[in-house]
């Protein structure tokens, strides 16, 4: 295939644009800002789970408190009833002894229940403090995530601008190449990542392999319009004064 050397030289410009597009897409895939967003999303989820866990504990403690309060209220009502019967003076000696014994038992039972209630209320107070702390940590994680997402979006927008610029440059460049040359270039680039490179100091700019003397001699004898490809990687070799021919 014969193509004017000046046109072949423009393949280097196209290769540079394509290399930049490749770098942009690689950066898009490993964007540090996106990795930070993902880390903070995981952190937010963990802190949210912690807050919900404390909320569930508080609900359980509230249920225990209501149950103990109802039991205490029931015991007090029975105490009031028994005292009322004792104060009425209308009960016999046997029933009087039974009422006094029951009152003693009820008082002991109420003391135990009140101690249990105090313990549960203290646990609830500690749980509320934990919930407030968990809520503060969750709020901080959400704020950090919001900031990280903003920075990620800015980085993505910058990449989009760079991609659009390179795409526009590429669209202008490809118009100068014959279809068959562009086809060879695109196929080579799709297979190996680099479609064309400078032959510099007897070394292929694509695979970085130094060509042997026989290959260099063959290329040196090839007319400038003839498209030459690297015998190692297949990239189109653009020859200039730097090629060492």
Helix coverage percent of residues? over 70%
Strand-residue fraction?
A: 5-15%
Morphology: rod-shaped
The chain-level structural class is mainly alpha
User: How many E-type strands?
Assistant: 4
Low-confidence segments, given as residue ranges, are none
| SSE series | HHHHEEHEE
Q: How are strands sequenced across the largest beta sheet?
A: 2-1-4-3
What profile does the largest beta sheet have?
4 strands, mixed
Radius of gyration: 42 Å
Summarize model confidence as the mean pLDDT.
94
Q: If helices are DSSP runs of H or I spanning 4 or more residues, what is the number of helices?
A: 5
How many angstroms separate the termini? 20 Å
Q: Would you mind describing this structure in some detail?
A:
Strands 2-1-4-3 form a four-stranded mixed beta sheet. α1 runs antiparallel to α3 (93-173) and α2 (32-88) packs antiparallel against α3 (93-173). The protein has 245 residues and is mainly α. It is rod-shaped, with a radius of gyration of 42 Å. 76% of the residues lie in helices and 5% in strands. A hairpin with a 2-residue loop joins β1 and β2.
């Amino acid at each position: 295939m014969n193509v004017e050397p000046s046109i072949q030289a423009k393949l280097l410009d196209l290769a540079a644009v394509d290399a930049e597009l490749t770098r942009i897409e690689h950066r898009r895939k490993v964007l540090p800002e996106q990795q930070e967003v993902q880390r903070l999303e995981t952190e937010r989820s963990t802190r949210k789970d912690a807050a919900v866990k404390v909320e569930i504990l508080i609900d359980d403690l509230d249920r225990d408190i209501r149950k103990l309060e109802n039991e205490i209220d029931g015991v007090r009502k029975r105490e009031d009833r028994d005292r009322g019967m004792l104060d009425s003076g209308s009960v016999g000696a046997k029933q009087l002894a039974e009422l006094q014994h029951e009152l003693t038992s009820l008082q002991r039972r109420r003391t135990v229940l009140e101690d249990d209630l105090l313990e549960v209320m203290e646990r609830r107070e500690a749980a509320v403090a934990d919930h407030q702390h968990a809520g503060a940590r969750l709020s901080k994680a959400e704020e950090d995530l919001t900031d990280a997402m903003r920075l990620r979006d800015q980085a993505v927008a910058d990449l989009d601008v760079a991609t659009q610029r390179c795409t526009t440059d590429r669209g202008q460049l490809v118009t100068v190449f014959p279809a068959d040359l562009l086809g060879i270039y695109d196929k080579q680039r799709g297979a190996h990542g680099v479609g064309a490179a400078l032959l510099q100091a007897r070394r292929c700019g694509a695979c970085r392999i130094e060509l042997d003397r026989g290959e260099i001699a063959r290329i040196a004898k090839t007319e400038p319009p003839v498209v030459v490809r690297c015998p190692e990687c297949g990239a189109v070799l653009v020859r200039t004064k730097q090629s060492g021919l």
